[in-house]
Amino acid sequence: MRFDYLAPPTIKEAISLLSKYNGKAKVIAGGTDLMNLIRTKMIKPEYVVDIGHVPGLDYVKYDDKGALSIGALATIRTLEMSAQVKESHPVICQAAAQLGSMAIRNVGTIGGNLCHASPAADTAPSLIALGARLKIVGPAGERTVALENFFTGPGQTALQRGEMVVEIQAPSMPPHTRGVYLKHSIRGAADLAIVGVAVIATSNGGCCRNVRIVLGAVAPTPMRARNAEEALEGKEIDDALIEKAAQAAADESRPITDVRGSADYRKEMVKVFTRWAIRGVIPKEEAVNETTHIIQQGEK
Amino acid sequence: MKQLIKLRVNGIDEELYAEPWWTLSHVLREELNFIGTKQGCEGGHCGACTVLIDGKAVMSCIYLAMKARGKDIMTIEGLEGENGALHPLQEAFIEHFAVQCGYCTPGMIMTAKAMLGENPNPTEEEVRAGLSGNLCRCTGYTKIVEAILSSAEKKGN
Amino acid sequence: MPELSVVGKSVVRLDARTKVLGKEEYCADIKLPGMLHAKVLGSPHPHAKILSVDTSAAEKVSGVRCVVTEKDAPKKLTGTGGIKDMPILARGVVRHMGEPVAAVAATTLEAAEEALELIKVEYKELPAIFDAEEAAGTNPPVIIHPDFSNYRVTLHPDRLSPERPNVFTHIKVYKGDVDKGFKESDLIVENRFVAPSIQHCALEPHAAVVCPEPDGSVTVFTGKQGLSRVKEDVAAAFGIEPYRVRVRQQYVGGSFGGKNGTYEFIPTLLALKTGRPVKWVMTREEVFVLGGPREGMVLTVKDGFNKDGTIVARKMEVLVDGGAYAEASPGITQNCSSATICMYRIPHLKWDGYAVYTNTPKRRGMRGYGVNEVAFAIESNMEIAAEKLGIDPVELRRKNLLREGEPMLNGEITHSIGAAECLDRVCAAIKLNEKGASEGPWRKGKGVALGNKYSTARAAYCGARIQVTENERIIVYHGADAVGQGVNTVIAQMAAEEFGISADRVDVVFSDTAITPFFGGGSTSSRTTYNLGNAVRRACDDAKRQIFQRAAWNLEAPPELLGTGNMEVYVRGHPERKIRVKDLFSPYQDRPRQIPAGGAGEGEEIMEIIGKATYRAESIPDDPKTGQLDPELAKQGKRFMAFYTYVAKAVEVAVNIETGEVKVLRCCGTVDLGKAINPKTCEQQLEGGMAMGIGSALYEVTLMEKGRVLNPNFADYRAPLAAQMPFNENMKSIFVESAPHKDGPFGAKGFSEGAVTGTEPAIANAIYNAVGVRIKELPITPEKVMRALRETYPSLPKRGKAAKLLIQEDL
Q1: What is the CATH number of domain C296-457+623-798?
Q2: What predicted TM-score, i.e. pTM, was given to this entire model?
Q3: What is A177-281's CATH number?
Q4: Helix H segments across C287-407?
Q5: What pLDDT score does C594 carry?
Q6: Helix or strand or coil: residue B109?
Q7: Which pLDDT score is estimated for B155?
Q8: Could you say which of A241, A249, C4, C551 would form a disulfide bridge with A274 (CB–CB 3.0 to 4.6 Å)?
Q9: What is the CATH number of domain C459-616?
Q10: In this complex, which of A184, A187, A262 lies closest to C721 when CB atoms are compared?
């Protein structure tokens, strides 16, 4: 486990190092994922580029339209505890709170969690459902990419040579919009998700609009359950429709069998948790504290 | 290649030559002899290596020593007061029989200190959730939770 | 019994302070000058021939001082139990993934790791066998130890099974005629249960630091259970005189059976070759594989009942998957029988236990040594039977329980059985017959189970030394292992009680084969309180005898009239005639001697007062063909096991009918421990044991595929965290003292293992009570519950909200 440690003080220098050592270098933010990958010899970088010393990348700020910008180095704990985010994008807090233990959240960053690109990443489903975009900088300059298109495979992203994520952008949540992220795991936050479900929808009275249903841990990348969304979009919500959407989500999911669960069970749980998540965002349903994983969400 | 680095541990500036790949727990245990920080899994899953960095709980076994430069590190050894005075959490752990083999104990106490620092009056549910990074195999957690709750009541933090 | 002043009190543990300060040095913390770091190369194949090993590149790595393979290792095969089948480094063949093939000692861990990667081993893969049932056949496709008949085996031939080439132990307990019994039964209940391999998960990884001494001897610093075995094994393997092998440790960061067996060979080999101290700390991944997972078991129970509920016959078969090397599996298999024979009255019994080799990591027994799996099978079967018989399951148990003075199923006379009271009190504490109300998808249920844990007498002899010092303190010397169970505090209390002082005036010197007395078997088999307690009390008697003999002269009274308390010796009935113990000691330097007026002659010079004693639990052997004791000797009260402790567990669970999750809401344990020497440390053990039982019931399994452990880390192996345990107010520990053991110190019996027993079947029974599904394979995961719910209630998956209503009616 030997490597050289580089701590560039600016983004520009970081990009230059990543370009120079492409393939031989790995970015470290908090390191909670990277250190295990290196220790278990899954990867053997010659250089570890610590971007943690680049100042001003850990912000959480809102513009006057309510759009959220998060610096890539903002820790998961910062997001979990941010009063602003709890007020404006509570589903992000909810997701952050379910990612690992407190000590992991203190060090792990939002940028790191997304770039590690685990199919089970806890921050991804809700951010995709919010329509988040990533600001990426590289040798060719700056670009933004929809988070939905950022993941290209398990552990793989759309980052090109020399590029790094610097910001996560989430649009403001329209009025009467609620979001819920539910994680099914055996030991709660400490475990990787067996299934993760994020649902965001705008609903005023009976109809549901702008429905986004995003599943984690049941495909090579976090995935939109588009058939499930279509089943609800613009319709009056009743139990039968919720069942139809939940079933559609289960049918669309493509889980594998691994140490956390079998594919069959995961499909079944997609249905169960999609059902609960939809109920969590539709205001007229009964109280949603029926499973241990749901945290009450306020309406936005 | 080893590099001279400075780490502030328990209020004291320590200087040492460190390899770039060394974790904070390696440096604390092997180079600076703070053996109170334990090695249980080297993966950040068991919490035996928990220390405080700028007051926040951190798994030192997956934290690069290089990253710890310029930060305030506190280990279990830093809790002891003058003339061997025990921190209220340490007293609570003794009093409530929260210690058996003792290997998880420093990590538990450091996590509890961080937890109570941010949430001085936690519910039992919050304490148990807050310990999700700390594995204990001896106690079943009952008396550890009792010790932490009683320590919170005493508001000794 | 005189009023006790220290024993029975919750004295604060004397090791707690240094532990909360982080000042205790565990083996994994040890640093010695010039110390090298060891790494071990494990086999990547479950079964393969070793064609060649080339260490030349590895030896050239800067910092490497030594690379060893089997050609450097001692030739004798080793093994913990009665079968020596295991080489120190693999010789010609590897039999499980992770089996040590080579080892490196280097100045840094990185250099050692780099060297490991450069060791070139050529393997030829062999067919491997992983399924215990398949391996146990008479004509298995793979024979793992074709050379078995040439091994040193101390098991009796009647405990072997040569017609099954991979089976290395066959234990039998036969009584009466089961076929006749089943013919006479009104109801027969037969079921198959599976308890898979799980992991000990002691927080401190396996570690050893071996130091060659200038005089040619060797010091082994370690952290384990059982030091004297390490001393014998290392001495025998390396041809060193046993007195020149010193094995020592301080506090151990947990063991639970995982650190039995000798793993110190490899660092010893490296230390002797390099002439430098060598430290080996297993990585967590290595602990999960090489440290040794627990055995896995398949158990079939066939019980025959009369319609009034009395058990008529039992046929039980237990298959123990021992992995690639026998290690402790013979003992575990033997001991599974003990869990069966000591609880219920059964006229006809056929009990067969087999231990079999598979190409999986060798196993280490875990807290309970088989009794937990046996209890899971028996206590689940009892509940199934109770329902079929239409008899209350608690009544069914009570009806069949053995009583004091009755013969057990092997002829041993039952003594000290508090099982009935345990059962009554645990049912009352959990309010067994009051079912909790459903909450959303959570259905509640309660369940109870009995359990027991023997303590072996065969290895149970130990010494103790009591030193009475001039500083008015007592020092206890013992060779047992302090693995977290609080032995030093409990022993200090007993010594303090004997001398009429407070426990904080007792110091303990422990776990050093050069200094402390022998402790047979290590702190295993729940034996320490009982064996060491007895030895310590006798040693105290010996010390007191010396004190009284000396003081007799000072006080001018015969020794038998003297008493001691508070570090004074006094004449009984005449408390004014006394002398301080410290004044019995001969003065040194310039202190004047105390000679009473009239001087009745010089008393003996005393520089030291050291009492010593040995305790041995007497036992008789069983007949290897039948497992029965000699009836005449048994009638005289001779025993097979030192003692049996009985336990009962009751739990309330909530089962989520949508996800299959099971949450333990309340957990209550009762233990018939004879006497709680320190009630709080007893609670510590019981709470920890119930947590372990909850873990193995619901969360824990060593996942293996073609011999590879798939979850060798704390992320994927799910030992329970604080949030998985019931809230404090819902954890209850109750200690039953109504059945003290006549030979236990203050009537006490050990129960650190029984603390776990019965939790798994209580949970399985509670789940059945909650949702009507019976799971017979541990762990009871959400997937298994969902599958069982689907099978039991086939209409479940099709409907959403409507399905919930249906279930409410059904359940």
Answers
A1: 3.30.365.10
A2: 0.96
A3: 3.30.390.50
A4: 329-341, 371-389, 393-400
A5: 52
A6: helix
A7: 59
A8: A249
A9: 3.30.365.10
A10: A187
